[in-house]
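Tokens for chain A. Residues wanted.
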């Protein structure tokens, strides 16, 4: 039996420490156990990542584990291995990787299930003597009658509903008429949500072929990743559901990742409708859960009470055992990338988890990332395609509205007349419309028409956005907020010129054009409540909203059969970003938002407003031509040595002193150059496209390499074993998705 354990402490160090296992804890210290250990002069918490027979630590220096916390291991062995890979690949401290795997809601010292007092009757009849006594204790009698009529419940709710204080209920307990005892209250966000059970839908030939491939990989000894390229409305979700049903029939569990919190309610509804009636536990993990809900959901998963887990990025670490399938829906989405260390990409971590556990991984998208498309073309992934919508529903017709036709001197068009008429026609037919603009607020640029002065954030090198509802200027990077100046502070001219419209202005314009229409807006400004996403989408699904205006949270994954018109207010926004993925993002966004239209029996229409109507991303999207776009874009990527043909690493420096920050990064760049990394090109150090955020100057340097696994281990010591100046932060982002 191992006498030693290697423990990673909850401190930001990239190493583990060896500890002796006392005889009294021999049966309790297991791989993944949470333990209390002596660390210097302190006692801290750590996690066992390896059991050992020997150590290099001298017997005199070797300390012992003090205590095992919890009745069982917190971390499955496979998640420890996954965290170790993440720490290596993404150049992060092992502790930081482990903390990503184990959510704070579970790690916290006070984390536990919620205990409340539960009341239930011990008898349904009153002895004659007790009945007489209760006539003199009116509140106890009232409480007794209420309990008999309404059944057991939580003491706090019963006191409020019955109007009888806690003393009355305790009096009943003293008479042995009721029991009041602590009980765990399950903080399940969907505990009381209604479930309309669904049955499997008949599959068309394309879906049958796709499901057959997935089932084949589920049963394979070494399953390959399956890339499911299915056009919007082609029935990818039904393939997911039936593949998971097959996994469950094998006694295994399934993990489903979705990119946006906004998609989670509808996805959860689909899965609960299909599986809850079969007594299959469905758990949910995402950042909009309360700490208590996240704790309870995670513990249910760990205990095996949930066999299906649905969630956003961090759900990839769900402690499921007997995993049989991992589904990554909308696999191309950049929101799968973690912004903080470790800078992991949930899709890639899912692929690695599948490799480590020998579990099938299914990546689904109407517009696969060019990296995944390339892997499929090279034979690394197995490609299956759904090129037709289910039930022979036609793809929507996409119209390009050229905004350049505005005559000189006319104000810029916010909603083109043709789009206005299309919306009016839908309102007359009681159909629904969606308008998409990936820009919040009312106006993102205030400029003096006299001298050209613009209102800029004092902390960031971006303009302030005007929010009309709050009558404030706000920065969407640092959250700075300030009043709107009554006149230009430079020349005194008034009023300002408001340009670059946002969703708030679009909403106002629609309310003016359609005063009787029921209009709602979905963006991060007004979707702050815990249930705001689910409520708005539920109202839209129920037909309580005619027009939905929003940012990218409404652009993908949602199924609303009554939507027959989609308008894209400004398709050019992302094309202006200095990033080699700009065209890919615009194409994907247009295809995804277009896919919200015409998912019922009425053919949909999409109206795309643009000033660059002949841009390839727009033209290929107009014709629903993913293959054509991918071929042209990949040829461009190959010539420029960008992914998927070469891998990127982004080194960035942030600091309050512009000169000092640049100097530190330049010195680091010289050290990287001296490593003479194989088949790697080191670009010049330059200011980041957004040169300052939160009063910190930003510089960066890009590396491109053909041998990522040879480069990362050699770079790692430069970033982890360093003491940078206190006011300088250095970040290495492997496989960045954002170069801003």
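Reply:
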């Amino acid at each position: 039996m191992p006498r030693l354990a290697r423990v990673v402490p909850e401190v930001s160090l990239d190493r583990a420490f060896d500890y002796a296992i006392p005889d009294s804890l021999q049966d309790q210290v297991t791989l993944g156990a949470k333990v209390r250990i002596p660390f210097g002069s302190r006692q801290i918490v750590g996690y066992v990542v390896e059991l050992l027979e020997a150590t290099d630590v001298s017997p005199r220096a070797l300390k012992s584990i003090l205590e095992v916390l919890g009745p069982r291991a917190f971390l499955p062995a496979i998640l420890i291995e996954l965290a170790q890979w993440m720490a290596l690949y993404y150049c992060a401290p092992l502790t930081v990787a482990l903390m990503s795997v184990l959510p704070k809601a579970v790690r916290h010292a006070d984390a536990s299930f919620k205990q409340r007092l539960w009341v239930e009757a011990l008898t349904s009849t009153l002895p004659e003597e007790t009945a007489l006594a209760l006539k003199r204790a009116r509140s106890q009698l009232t409480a007794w009658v209420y309990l008999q009529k309404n059944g057991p419940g939580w003491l706090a709710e019963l006191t409020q509903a019955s109007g009888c204080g806690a003393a009355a209920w305790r009096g009943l307990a003293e008479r042995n008429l009721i029991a009041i005892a602590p009980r765990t209250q399950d903080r399940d966000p969907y505990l009381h949500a209604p479930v309309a059970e669904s049955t499997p839908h008949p599959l068309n030939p394309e879906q049958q072929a796709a499901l057959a491939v997935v089932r084949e990989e589920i049963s394979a000894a070494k399953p390959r990743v399956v890339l499911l390229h299915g056009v919007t409305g082609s029935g990818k979700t039904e393939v997911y559901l039936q593949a998971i049903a097959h996994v469950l029939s094998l006694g295994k569990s399934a993990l489903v990742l979705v990119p946006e919190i906004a998609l989670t309610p509808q996805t959860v509804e689909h899965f609960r409708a299909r599986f809850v009636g079969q007594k299959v536990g469905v758990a949910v993990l995402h950042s909009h859960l309360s700490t208590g809900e996240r704790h309870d959901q995670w513990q249910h998963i760990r205990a095996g009470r949930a066999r299906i887990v649905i969630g956003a990025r961090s759900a990839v670490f769900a402690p499921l055992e007997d995993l049989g399938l991992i589904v990554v829906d909308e696999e191309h989405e950049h929101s799968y990338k973690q912004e903080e260390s470790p800078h992991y990409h949930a899709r890639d971590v899912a692929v690695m988890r599948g490799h480590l556990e020998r579990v099938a991984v299914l990546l689904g998208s109407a517009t696969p990332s060019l990296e995944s498309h390339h892997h499929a073309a090279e034979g690394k992934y197995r490609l299956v395609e759904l090129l037709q919508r289910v039930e022979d529903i036609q793809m929507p017709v996409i119209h390009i509205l050229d905004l350049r036709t505005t005559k000189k001197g006319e104000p810029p068009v916010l909603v083109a007349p043709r789009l206005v008429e299309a919306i009016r026609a839908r309102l007359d037919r009681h159909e629904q419309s969606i308008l998409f603009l990936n820009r919040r607020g009312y106006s993102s640029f205030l400029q003096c028409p006299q001298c050209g002065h613009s209102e800029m954030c004092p902390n960031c090198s971006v303009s302030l956005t005007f929010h009309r509802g709050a009558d404030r200027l706000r920065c969407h990077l640092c959250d700075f907020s300030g009043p709107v100046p009554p006149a230009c502070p430079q020349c005194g001219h008034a009023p300002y010129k408001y340009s670059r419209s946002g969703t708030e202005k679009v909403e106002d314009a629609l309310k003016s054009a359609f005063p009787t229409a029921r209009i709602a807006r979905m963006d991060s400004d007004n979707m702050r409540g815990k249930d705001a996403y689910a409520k708005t989408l539920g109202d839209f699904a129920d037909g309580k909203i005619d027009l939905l205006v929003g940012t990218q949270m409404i652009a993908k994954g949602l199924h609303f059969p009554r939507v027959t018109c989609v308008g894209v207010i400004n398709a050019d926004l992302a094309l202006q970003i200095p990033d080699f993925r700009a065209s890919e993002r615009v194409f994907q966004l247009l295809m995804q938002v277009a896919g919200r239209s015409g998912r019922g029996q009425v053919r949909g229409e999409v109206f795309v407003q643009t000033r660059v109507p002949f841009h390839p991303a727009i033209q290929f999207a107009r014709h629903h031509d993913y293959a054509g776009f991918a071929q042209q874009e990949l040829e461009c990527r190959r010539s420029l040595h960008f992914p998927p043909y070469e891998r990127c690493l982004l080194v960035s420096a942030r600091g309050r002193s512009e000169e000092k920050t640049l100097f530190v990064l330049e010195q680091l760049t010289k050290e990287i150059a001296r490593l003479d990394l194989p088949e790697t090109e080191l670009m010049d150090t330059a200011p980041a496209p957004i040169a300052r955020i939160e009063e910190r100057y930003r510089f960066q340097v890009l590396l491109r390499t053909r041998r990522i696994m040879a480069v990362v281990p050699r770079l790692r010591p430069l970033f982890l074993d360093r003491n940078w100046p206190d006011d300088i932060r250095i970040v290495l982002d492997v496989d960045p998705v954002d170069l801003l």
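The chain has 21 helices and 31 strands. The CA atoms of residues 300 and 357 lie 21 Å apart.
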